Amino acid sequence: MTDKSFFSRALSLVVAGSLLCLSAAPGLAQSAPAQKAPAKGEEFIIIIDGKEPNKLQIFGPSVKPKTAPQQTVPNPAVDPKAPTPTVDPNAAPAQPSDSTKVDGGSDQPSIEGIPLDDPQKLKEFLEKHGIAMPGAAAPQAPSPQDLEDFYHEVWRLVAMKYYNESKLVGWETWYDKYKGKLLTVKDLESALSEMLGGVGDRWTQYTTSDTIERSRARAKNDIVDLGISVAPQKDGTYKIDFLSYGTPGWKSNAFRTGDTLKSVHVNPQDPATQPVNVKGLSAKDVDELLQQKVGTKVSVVIAHDGIEEKVDLSFEKPDRAPIMLKPLPNNIGYIRLPTFGSDQGSVEALGNAFVEGLAKLDGHFKGNMQGIVLDLRGNSGGAVELAKMIASIFIRDGSFIKEQEREGRLNKVTENTFKAPMPYQFVGVPPEVLSLMSRLYTMPMVVLVNGSSASSSEILTGTLMDNNRAVVVGTQTFGKAVAFIVMPTPAGGFLQVTTMHYLTPNGNDIAGKGIAPNVAIDNKRGSQATDDQLSTAVKIVSDAITKMNGAGQTQVPAQQGGQSFGGDSVLWIGIGLGLIALIVVLGGFWHHTRKQRDEAERRNK
After folding, report:
1. Which domains does the chain have, with CATH numbers?
2. pTM for the whole thing?
3. How far apart are CA 31 and CA 311, in angstroms?
4. 3-state secondary structure of 540
5. How does residue 519 score in pLDDT terms, banded at 50, 70 and 90?
């Protein structure tokens, strides 16, 4: 990647955000009689097309879809449980790699795991690593020595790179445990599964070729996920640990993370079927119960709050998760971010959409938006870079996350900070744009979270909380803040080793713990329940607005009529907010370049 190509992409982010805001301007300008102003509470929905993720489609009052520039540079991403689109069922099965060294993957930590719950992403993931080539001839079977060499390479990788050395007590005993016993690729897969499982880290694992093939077969047969992820407990029971947004499990509003799964009854309308008690079952068997053909009915029994409850559902494909905007009382803007993206293209598209969303909300309030509610409930994460970009919009100066890595006996901690923007960076920007940008730094803000807010959602939440920039409302978050190396094996599977650990600005470790909100409140269960979390957020922001205005803080006057706001100003808002994102992207680029140069110098010594 050349510097020039990077600057072109970075600049396109700013321009794209500006053009998108310009395209929305007629719908916001009061002087255009053909454009009807949105009614109070009306939602704008910005959808990232699932088939073409680099295209931004904007659906709102009289606003036609527009296109954002396409980008293809990969970016680290986080996604513990993603919704399930479709996959090409005719794609060829994965072929084993003939590599006997731990290569073929990136040596840079990523927080993007193997997307087994997303068939389309799984197909792209396999093709990216060169093991899903249609019509490819099967390579020559590795020799027992090749298999043993690869096993030792993985052992060394964990010994040198695994971030938490305290979990490697006795690691030396694994080195020769399978000496002379690795005769086939299946032997290798079994040995890698046992060795990596012995670390005791849910993110350090081996995904077998059989597991990947089962995922492909499910997609081919139109089998989908109920959206309920469960974790085995020491007593043989299973607890719900994640709910995927837009799935039947999520939409029912009947489940919460921490609920105990008691039984699953597939096709309960059939007298020949019986409920299956999941206690003592293998994780594979439980997963298969929760994955059925589209249209299949199921009854799920859960235990919570001292009671047992039966929930009747049907397996369906998940809804597409849009960015959602809506105006709330007291000039409060609401924005729901569904994901943080998985590659450079989706990150830039989401970043553009988020920036445009702020401009549209402020335009709706005629340049007088007073508060923000950012909804990250059910957001499973994505690229850390987008979390950094969004944080920079709301934090004038402060700290971002800390990164912990290990290279043998060397432990490294990298701190990331925001510096206040310099005046020269905004030369030529109109006063109303500077007003919005200034208000975003201090505007009362609430972040909504729940047990399915994970990874980058938690990174952004922790950053805003530790910088005293937002009040966090909801329930305890998921608890994932690690990055890992993902690489293919000669057997056609993938190994995943945790090599980086994120801490919040105050040094809080949220891995396995999550973030406790400032205001803990859960919504009532059921499809008819009201959103008490959102109501609480509105009250907190409204009270803060009243306090700020009562303390003599100048309220920004509403812009009146004509093109003074909603026309050229919306374009400049996009440019102004895009400049902030550009500054952060450039900082990340120089950091990445310096890191690559340091690595190269170390290798050459």
Report:
1. 228-314 (2.30.42)
2. 0.72
3. 51
4. helix
5. very high
